Amino acid sequence: MIPKSNHDPLWSHTETMGALHAARALVPQALDQVRQLLYAMHGVDYSSEFLLLVHGFWAEHLCHDVVFHARSETEVNHTSQSAKVFVVPKSKPKYPQSVTTALSRGAVIRGLATSSLNTQDISLVMERDPYGAMSLRSRLRGVTERLVRNDKASIWICHPYTFETPLRRAQTALRTRETMVWSDDVSIRELEASLNESLRKSLAGSMSVVSHETLVRALVPLVIPTDLAEDLQQLENLVRSQPQRPLRLMYTANAQHYHLQFKIAAAFAKQTGVKLLVHQHGGGYGIDEMHAGEFYDRAIADRFYTFGWTDEANSTNVTPLVAPVRGVRQSDSHNFLLISVDYTKEFFRFQSFCMPGHAEACLNETKLFLGELHESTTIHLRLSPELPLPIKELESARCQVVQTHPSRSGSELAAHSRLVIHNYLGTSWLETLAMNIPTVCFYDPVMYRPRAAAQPFVDALAKVGVIHYSGIEAAKFVNGLNGDPSAWWQSTEVQEAREAFVARYANFSENWLPAWIEEFERLLAE
To answer: Which pairing describes strands 249-252 and 180-182: parallel, antiparallel, or unpaired?
Structure first.
């Protein structure tokens, strides 16, 4: 049996970093077990490079789950037959998820880790109707992409970190069509393979769970999504049946995580010398002391582009490249806006705001922040549309709280705000700093610590009042602005700290496309 330990739900930064190291060490075990499963299913021995690109990000998340849940003292109580059912996801697991009528992935991990659950006791069933209806925006983008597509182009742009309208996207695609194909095509909708429960349970049951390594090996056959296992051959055939393009470069900012069609195509293309270019797509990269997404993206990319930072210790494939601007500051509002962290009750990964205890701590600090503000202050609260903070918990605030409409994005709301407050360090604070909107952030340093290279830039922001280490401290600072942050924000010391940080960690530009064209032409000329 795996040793257990009691732990506070609020993991310290040191604990989190140690757990992240432990999870990363398990990934090779997970991928090796994936290889064995796929060989048993399809008779194909996949290369390590293929498995890392196609299965690696899923394996990374699984190993995070193992390290997190296997530490819990909680055993799984199976009082009914339905409680022993595990719904195998069709595609990526829906993170974070709460399951009441079937076993969650965390419950399976805890059950196997504590020997309260046997692999043969688990009934595996396929997920039904996993794909939602495609949005009108996505359909319009698909139509315009097909209209301007040039199948002789040598660069495939898939899921870039842009927020253009379908019309603007079509204009960009038309302007660059001689060399670039802009396509987010996700043609994989229905697959016919059925769940191979007997093979999965046979391979899982052959493992004696005595360590994290053997726990991972037992889990892989039980919980791997069907599109990464039973459906893989069909997906490969579908990708190979697509019109062949004379590709030399494949670029993405998001498709390397969950766009399976792109991942398989990239795995094939890299074997012929095509370069995979991956661009940073959010906060934490280059700033967090350790960042799981960054580790993975850099491992699979021939060239990894950042928002401005470099890695002097390991810079062989890390290059700054401007990213498209997320929004433009407007001046027609006096609103104070609070952009809030997701309130997750389920573990997501070892990153500060992706853990339940940390989300609870953010909630408590937010309550303290709102409770300390002057009664005359009105805060417009932008909650996560999918995982909002429990609004009833914030009703005791001394200030006035107005909830924004969930359809409006944080960057859109921020563009029309006089001051933006963030209760976590994710992507949104990078956006408001880059848009030169007065910005205040607060977080608990027990939970989070930037890496050494970023620390001086974070310290400089803290010194001038942008960053605070508690909700109360941040509220007292906001109260001191007396409703008008402009004088503080435009001061020389604040702007110097902001500009130094933005140049390295939030380099967004309206002139991003010429910079991309220049970079890609340089790579094509090599």
So the answer is: unpaired
Q: Answer yes or no: are the C-beta atoms of 256 and 262 closer than 8 Å.
A: yes
Q: What percent of the chain has pLDDT over 90?
A: 62
Q: State how beta strands 155-158 and 378-382 pair.
A: unpaired
- pTM of the full predicted structure? 0.91
* Distance of alpha carbon 365 from alpha carbon 356, whole angstroms: 14
The strand pair at 155-158 and 318-320 is best described as unpaired
**What DSSP letter does each residue of 117-151 carry, written as one string?**
S-GGGPEEEE--S-PPPPPHHHHHHHHHHHHH--T
DSSP state of 450: B
pLDDT band (50, 70, 90) for residue 146: low
Cβ-based neighbour number of residue 1 at 10 Å:
10
pLDDT at position 3 is: 38
For residue 196, give the 3-state DSSP assignment.
Answer: coil
The residue count of the chain comes to 526
Domains annotated on the chain, with CATH = 13-128+194-232 (no CATH), 152-190+241-320 (3.40.50), 335-508 (3.40.50.2000)
Closest CA to 423 of 383, 371, 372: 383
